[in-house]
Structure formats: structure tokens, C-alpha cells
Amino acid sequence: MTFVAAVVAVGLAPMVSAAPAHAADPAWNGVYSLKRFAASKTGTSLAARQAEPDFSDDYTFTTSCDGGTCVATVIDGPKPANPTLPQPPRYTWEAGSWVHRYDWQWDCWQGAGVPKVWRPATSVATYAPQGDGTLKGVWRTTIDGGPCDGTVVMNVAAYPVTPPAPGWNLS
């Protein structure tokens, strides 16, 4: 199972804002490392009880605001292993958080050599900007039917990836 989240690139410095209604539109721009805390997931599904390490990937986000709606879209990052995840991921600004709602097929793993069972799932991932430039939230999934029927809930976070300082050559 792979979870994909979004990040946006603008210039050299990443920017996340939770602007008041009278200020500029909110933005999630730049490269972010999205971490999923899978080792401490909870829920009612068999999948919630399966051991899994925390994992992270880097994504680039860009934000556009049109007609009062702001959407942060992932424009670069690894492709998900699960082909049913909607691409590209899009997060809508709602009540002070970036929210990604999507329907997909959960690929229920039941052990080595056992074929995966695919079932409909609905997920909501929410990332709230923090004062230190990170985002923190929760990814909640409801799986409909099959051996993994139930819920999976895990904490998530997004950390800005700072580009190297000018003059440094890391190659």
C-alpha cells in the first residue's frame, strides 16, 4: 500500500501559509518530505494491526487559487505503487488545513504468497500548517469489505526540504 501526498515548488524557498481571510491566499509551495507514521497506525482493519515501518518521500507542491478555492497540487514526486490512487494528488484549503479526499482500491496484504484482495476505500488526508513551517495531520481510510474491512488511521507530517546553500556543490 502506498500513500501519495502533494508538495509545490516555487523558487528556492518553500512556503506554507495559513492566511487569515483578509490576507493573501494560502499557499503550499516547494519541496516537502511527507512522512507517514505507519508504525503507530490505529483502526479497526486488519491492515491497522499489520507491522509496517514509518516511511517518507519528497514531493513538490504548487498552489493555485481560483474563485475563492485554493488547491495545492503535487507536480513532482515518486509514482504510487498502487495504480488506483488518483493522480496528481490535490489538496484543497478548508478551514485552516490542506485536505485531500479520494476514492481508490485498497490492496489488502495477507502475507507472503497470498494474493492481495482489492476493495473500495475512501481516504481523507489533512495537513495543518504549523508555526515552524511544517504541516501535521492525520490520514484516515475506510476500507469497504474483504479481509481488511474497517478503518486505518495514521499521523502524517510534511517537512520543508531546504535546498543546499549557494556555493555548495554536493555532487
From TrEMBL:
Record keywords: Signal
Annotated signal peptide: 1-23
Source organism, top-level taxon: Bacteria
Protein name from the UniProt record: Secreted protein
Source species of the chain: Gordonia alkanivorans CGMCC 6845
